[in-house]
Amino acid sequence: MALKNKLAFLAAEQTHVGQLRDVNQDASLITDDIFAVADGMGGHAAGDIAAEIAVDALANAIRMASVDDLVVAVKDANKAIVKRATAEPELKGMGTTVVALAVFVDGDAQHLALINVGDSRGYRFSNGVISQLTDDHSLVADLVRDGMLRPDQAEQHPQRNVITRALGIDTDVQVDSWIHDPKVGDRYLLCSDGLFNEVKESEIAKVMSKFAHPEDAVDELVDRANAAGGRDNITVVIVDVVDPKAKEPAKVRASKPSDGAEDDAAVDDPTAETKADVSPVTAPEPAPAPTAESGGFLSRILGRKKGTNRDGAK
Ligand code: MN
């Protein structure tokens, strides 16, 4: 079956260790049709390995014909991390977040599958408006959802890097997934928390608007995160949806002049995304509760709070 209007995807990635950390445990991936950011955690080299296993598993995923295929690839990556950590005791406790975007074809149209586990994020920048597409699996995000914290308090919270879901913790993992329809001019951003904990969303949007070429935009975002403190590893992937007939990236405008009619659609188009609930029939098992002696990595992982059910919450 032939695609009626085949779109192209122009992507760029940048990563930086930041100003305080000794090692960069983030990883990123760009292929023709799959893009990802993983933020690894664990002592010594373990976090790097977990993040690398995650992006390698996605890069090697054979079948990508639906959002479910991307979810399966992430679940396979999770199993691979658990298996490796079991086989090599020095890697015990390693884990990683992952946020990924994959292009797949269904019928005569291209779609984008987006998945997330952990507190890396996916955003879309469309018609000058930035929207966060993913939900953080973090302690502070839970507290904000429960009305215990305001978003501005969450940004400064000392435990803002404690996450509630990650790959590598258990043999199964719950994966959030969405389907988006790519539109020429739309720009997708995948990033680790080292970006958005340093650079405000409004400032990210300004950079997305100012720098037409994704290479320039990823560099500028990483520079700004470092300038703001660079307290964590910083990783940014930008994917632009482009008309393949427009060879020059400079022709891709991140911010199109508004024609009015599409303004609302950019922010809240009910047809643009379908939240696919891909959780297994069985209830997800809670992540292990943090223990006093768990130290570095597990201090960033928090078990699901008893009585808290975020799965049904939007
Ligand atoms: Mn991080």
Notes on the protein architecture:
The radius of gyration is 19 Å and the shape is globular. The longest helix is centred in the first third of the chain and has 21 residues, at 67-87. With 314 residues, it is of the alpha+beta class. It has a single domain (8-306), classed as PPM-type phosphatase domain (Phosphatase 2c, domain 1). The protein is built from nine helices and twelve strands. Strands 2, 3, 4, 5, 6, 9 and 12 form a seven-stranded antiparallel sheet that branches. A five-stranded antiparallel sheet has the order 1-11-10-7-8. It binds manganese (II) ion. Manganese (II) ion binds next to helix 5.
Brief synopsis:
By secondary structure, this protein is of the alpha+beta class. It has 9 helices and 12 strands. Helix 1 (46-59) runs antiparallel to helix 2 (67-87) and helix 6 (201-210) runs antiparallel to helix 7 (214-227).
